[in-house]
Amino acid sequence: MTALTAHSISQLDAHWRAANYLAVGQIYLMGNPLLAEPLRPEHIKPRLLGHWGTSPGLNLVHTHLNRVIRERSLEALCVWGPGHGGPAVLANSWLEGTYGETYPDVSRDADGMAKLFRQFSFPGGVPSHVAPETPGSVHEGGELGYALAHAYGAAFDHPGLLVACVIGDGEAETGPLAASWHSNKFLDPVHDGAVLPILHLNGYKIANPTVLSRIPEDELDALLRGYGHDPLYVTGSDPAQVHHAMARAMDHALDRIALIQQEARTAGTDPGRKYARWPMIVLRTPKGWTGPAIVDGDPVEGTWRAHQVPLAGVRENPAHLRQLEDWLRSYRPEELFDADGRPTAQVLACVPDGEHRLGAVPYANGGRLLRPLPLPALDQHAVPVDKPGRTLHEPTRVLGRFLTQIMRDTAGRRDFRVVGPDETASNRLDDLYGATGKAWQGITEATDRNLSRDGRVMEILSEHVCQGWLEGYLLTGRHGLFSTYEAFAHIVDSMVGQHIKWLKTARELSWRAPIASLNYLLTSHVWRQDNNGFSHQDPGFVDHVLNKSPEVVRVYLPPDANTLLAVADHALRSRDQVNVIVAGKQPCFDWLPIDEARTHVTRGAGIWEWAGTDHGSREPDVVLACAGDVPTMEVLAAAALLREHLPSLAVRVVNVVDIARLMPHEEHPHGLTDPEYDALFTTDKPVIFAYHGYPWLIHRVAYRRTGHPQLHVRGYKESGTTTTPFDMVVRNDMDRYRLVMDVIDRVPGLAGRAEGLRQAMADQRIRHHAWIREHGTDLPEVADWSWPY
Amino acid sequence: MTALTAHSISQLDAHWRAANYLAVGQIYLMGNPLLAEPLRPEHIKPRLLGHWGTSPGLNLVHTHLNRVIRERSLEALCVWGPGHGGPAVLANSWLEGTYGETYPDVSRDADGMAKLFRQFSFPGGVPSHVAPETPGSVHEGGELGYALAHAYGAAFDHPGLLVACVIGDGEAETGPLAASWHSNKFLDPVHDGAVLPILHLNGYKIANPTVLSRIPEDELDALLRGYGHDPLYVTGSDPAQVHHAMARAMDHALDRIALIQQEARTAGTDPGRKYARWPMIVLRTPKGWTGPAIVDGDPVEGTWRAHQVPLAGVRENPAHLRQLEDWLRSYRPEELFDADGRPTAQVLACVPDGEHRLGAVPYANGGRLLRPLPLPALDQHAVPVDKPGRTLHEPTRVLGRFLTQIMRDTAGRRDFRVVGPDETASNRLDDLYGATGKAWQGITEATDRNLSRDGRVMEILSEHVCQGWLEGYLLTGRHGLFSTYEAFAHIVDSMVGQHIKWLKTARELSWRAPIASLNYLLTSHVWRQDNNGFSHQDPGFVDHVLNKSPEVVRVYLPPDANTLLAVADHALRSRDQVNVIVAGKQPCFDWLPIDEARTHVTRGAGIWEWAGTDHGSREPDVVLACAGDVPTMEVLAAAALLREHLPSLAVRVVNVVDIARLMPHEEHPHGLTDPEYDALFTTDKPVIFAYHGYPWLIHRVAYRRTGHPQLHVRGYKESGTTTTPFDMVVRNDMDRYRLVMDVIDRVPGLAGRAEGLRQAMADQRIRHHAWIREHGTDLPEVADWSWPY
Fold first, then answer.
1. Hey, CA dihedral for A409, A411, A412, A413, is it positive or negative?
2. Which domains does chain B have, with CATH numbers?
3. pTM of the full predicted structure?
């Protein structure tokens, strides 16, 4: 660590002033970018949008990251938690040249500066937040909470990478961020890169002081040490002093990181390796620093009033206009830009070269680094199926063996991880521990099993952190899977929504290379929460994601183990998507041999001829449709009852594995055309559809189909408790007996002919209720059922 | 604080052993509850379900809470974070007698004990978790994360109440819990009760060690001090020693709480009042303590293997059966229960009386304490509307004045709070600060505004904490409102799902008195996120809640300020519901005088005759329907265009304020009957429906209606960015011009007649695009539009 010269400080300050000038310009100006003439109202945008408050702090961090990256030839990326400070990050990208390289018409000159200013938050321009459109970004700063988890996700398995992460003191109040601090217990200094958290205490949110800026300093220090960090404090409002302090803190932090890594990498996997206390920086500077101190008599700089647009009435109010001009000129733009608007050498002195620039680092455009996964042949992991419905397997356990092989085959590359909230074993994926351990840097005890410092199974009891880690990992060019209890996927509803928005936008940007899809395995699902009951029963995550961009979202409900394998294989090859796979962990009948499973997944929906009695091309009397493992079993059991008791009834069985197939072809790339749909479901025959989740989802995707008026859906209707598996389907009217009754009620002319059968079915339901109350288990004929044909 | 005598300790231990015995019995036994004979396989349940691991710890806490409640005559309730330890809480409730008082057939004797055992996790019995069915509970321990926020919510404005809160070390890893620690900065020792967090480090989750149990002790201590607590440690596995230590810690903590409260209440609102460091207890005992140490050669007690059912094969495996019997007998049941199964005096010595018992405290059945809110007359706050569509008001600001009056009128009672994630002012509710401040116990500065120690507006940048606080507040008998940005309501999707499940179940329990509804104001909505763009645009929270129990859920989309007032008035009077109100904060046309608004809300949907041209009873040619403020404006603008250009077309305008009206009458208590629906929408005329959110929601609620094939819905289809308000509706094809084109396309015979108008509308859309790119603002004829008739 060397003391900075006055010359270096003046270079850093020039860069910072330039970035601040450009940030203010973006918020306000649509003309006169270099202040070549006095500001006039027509130079001002008609709608003033943007967030000034955090921008000078972000500019300071970017400036100082530039210096250390350049001096140390670092590979670094930065996660900008306060990404609503878009003007700051855009300003820096333009200064370092990556913006103009990505968008050549926004060149690094006066003309480009004018475009940079005008396009910001302007219709047809660029969003006000750091977004996929921003070079170097892997994190949209709109919905706060995920910055630190994203940073860790980016650092895992990138041992040469430094991930700086700016955390706003507003964001620090959120739950996901608060939980993410403990990510350092899962980061291996040998195989992973480093995360440098920079907690920016500018003191205020939109309208309130922040908690962490208003607790006693010793309490804050204790908190950060409690998180396992050694905090370095940079505090002040005098730029020169803050530059000095920030440079010192950066150097200190990077030296310390290098030392931790060196020690760990020398010690290797030696169990005596130290528990690392990573450095972090606490940056305490005024909100809206260098902006207007007072506006209309109220303090603005250093208060919440600086959050967005400090001077609101610039177009109409000459005093505000003059104050804006003074503010802009306070950065002395004439020293920072030449007559053509190009940044001077002094401004650019700290900027790194080429791919070392934060806007050009390939890690932030992860698709450029992505390699296809080595996927094992499915036949190696498939279960044999001689006859359908005779053997049972736990689908997720079969999947676990497939994932284990991938884990083994990526042992050297280290670009595949499985995350989950303490449920990997519960979800029957524990074969994975034959190939890798569970990441863990905490204290260990003799009774522990499968923990390891370099494990690539990640378990923390926070769905938010799991999701954030995986997003960061994928966005920086790797592969992964998130396994979780189905009901608790809702915990990350908002996160997946933001990730889908990111992918939707990124797909439209030619310079962003496709990344691996985010794959969910939702298991321990609604029908088999025997142990936990009502609180663990919610199949609605599928409904949530299907509201989002259809080009991004896929939902699969494989009915058995082999189909799950085929779906997983497909999902792990896909790019830029969110694949939601819902599959059970309890023993489930095997229906399809692997070749048929693969074909079935490719088709997404198909007639199971062996299960029906409509004999191929014959028009059926009724269609029994199903999606999901438990519904498939109930439909098959209903089909068997009908074949036994009403042998002349032509029943067609259709299984749907890819829910989007039901959607109109025009609305989803997987949607069936109307003739394709009609060929499966007919246009006029009753369709009794047993669906895994909320029944109205099927109506909402299929309402435009010709046969929709004949569609009758059974599914989960929020009736649950701790009870037996079959009682769950009875409670929700999706059991085999009810389905047979539905057929009798809906096939014209059947009601009279099958009155006895209908009564027998109703009696079975009554018998069921009596039986479980006495025995606590399901009816023997249900528990012991298998496909009889 | 006095040292406990050996006698007291033996009484506490007897109670604890009894509770442990009863917990094990619930998991395993369906006969022979008192071990009157050797255990045989037929005494064992066929399905072994339940969570043993946490139960002995919960029993210890309950036992020791009993002692201090009894000795100090406390009013206390306990939030059991590890509520999956249902057997423990049920055991204690049965011991103290509240279970038998609530459910008389489960009496405190051998017969009742047999029922207690058998019903647990048995079909038709009780859930395995602490649930609404559990006396004394306000918290279901299924989805982890919300215990501490619930505890604070319960303590606010209950100055005489102690809320103990057990936090499992698994739950402590979740984001919401991690954020909730800072709730102590919002708790006023004068007007609020006390929260005593008890962090239970039993070391393991389902299958992994926990983070907080495996960091260095000094780091844990720093963390808890960083949270603002003074931790007291109780560590051990020797019962006698732990009893002593726990009793000391409890006494110390309660003495300290009493001192903090006394000092603060003496000092009053003196600004020099101290920043309180509240005590908390860290309880470090083995998971599955007192259970089987080793099973089949593997360590179980003190490891994750004790999480659920430590002995799994009891029915089939004689060795396991013997081990279970030894385990049960290790509690010496013969000392704890008399021959009739009644707990002995020794066991009951620590149990408090009457409503001091944790299972009987009225705070945990909050409806018993609930008083109706004093609601101001709507006329006092309504805006005058002489003619529709001429004046503009910010609806949420008008609502804010109404809420302010309520805040004022509850200043003495203190049973109404407004929570929000730093958005109360942004959401234009800041008139509230005229009646109360924002709760804040942190350091203050001279520039601060509206912070106060006893404020009843609660702002923390965590939707999770806001939601948890409000749930706890409502469940203990008070009223409130949660205002938040619409898009970020998804952050609490899972929490509201759990609360709806709670309410659904609680409504079915006659002994639970109805509580105030959870009211959401979703604003800063999808159509007016000018500043923030795509990441802030998501109207899907409504879709999420509408999947849940219809008896609980209501969704309102008031089209103007007066309608919002009428909706809020209705919501604040309702009970046991979740009311989602979506309303804008931007200036919005006033359409209805307050009397009409009130009638409109009562009807939920109605024909706006003044806006249409179908003149009352005449059959219209087309129905223009709308739900939401922006859709209503676009529909009215389209209706005006049609009236001007196609005066002979009979247009009916229908506004829907209560979305459930569209659902079938059989499926939702607010659903219209078919004749009612048909009277509004016709059975065969084209209906062009402009809806606030995802358009398919309308199809999914209305698909059974006769006229459904003629229903054409426009809404948000995930097309957004930072742009102008009108550009948002154009991007999503919901603008007035597009609606007119839809009418022309769908009314039979109109296409030819109105070709010119259709072209003019298409041209206007093109003009719009050109205009915003040049000017950055909306077309003048849109920006200046008002209802012209």
1. positive
2. 6-362 (3.40.50.970), 378-588 (3.40.50.970), 604-783 (3.40.50.920)
3. 0.98
